[in-house]
Write a structure and sequence with these properties.
The protein has 8 helices and 5 strands, in the order βαβααβααβααβα. The protein is of the alpha/beta class. The model has no long low-confidence stretch (mean pLDDT about 95). It binds thymidine-5'-phosphate.
Length: about 210
Amino acid sequence: MVAAPQARFVTFEGIDGAGKSTQARHLAEALRAAGHEVVLTREPGGSPGAEEIRRLLVSGAPGRWSAETECLLFTAARRDHWERTIAPALARGAWVVCDRFADSTRVYQGAAQPGLRAVVDRLHAEFIGREPDVTVVIDMDPAEALARGLARASGENRFEERGLAFQERLRTGFRALAAEFPARIRLVDGARPAAEVAAAVRALMPLP
Ligand code: TMP
């Protein structure tokens, strides 16, 4: 797949409840208002097959899958999402705004078990082979974010149920990833009114 020159691939990342879905929506609306074609999508999910895999991943007991099995399921969902939604959109020149992508697997599954990060990177290289143009990490205090995440009562709380200490490890993981890839990953302080966060996000966009 070759992306058209005006295509852009933007991902949002962060701990549970940090407000990334809201920010992804705000950005998609702003880009559409400026006349761009935008595909707003999410992971796990974003294609019919990947949404089916999502149901297996986000509900049920926290210990339902091992971290290794999760790596495979998230990668399988991502491959379907990539083939059916993301790659075709980039090929026709659209912006793709995606709520979570491979950095979530690096951080969530990598945080669950040391050593898995290398496995995630190998799976990504083999089956996806593309990083976003820009990744926005919405950075947020885990206690505040956790309270917001659980308050949604979506029935999709398998990861939130691992508790505050896990969310703190995730925050550390996302910050470390931002330091590792400073050209691609930008941290945005999420502890501000949503409109302020949205303006900070827009300022980071590689507009054509
Ligand atoms: P969401 O709540 O942002 O829709 O994401 C669902 C959950 O799945 C969330 O707790 C993060 C987790 N997750 C991973 O553990 N690894 C991944 O690769 C992705 C995409 C999500």
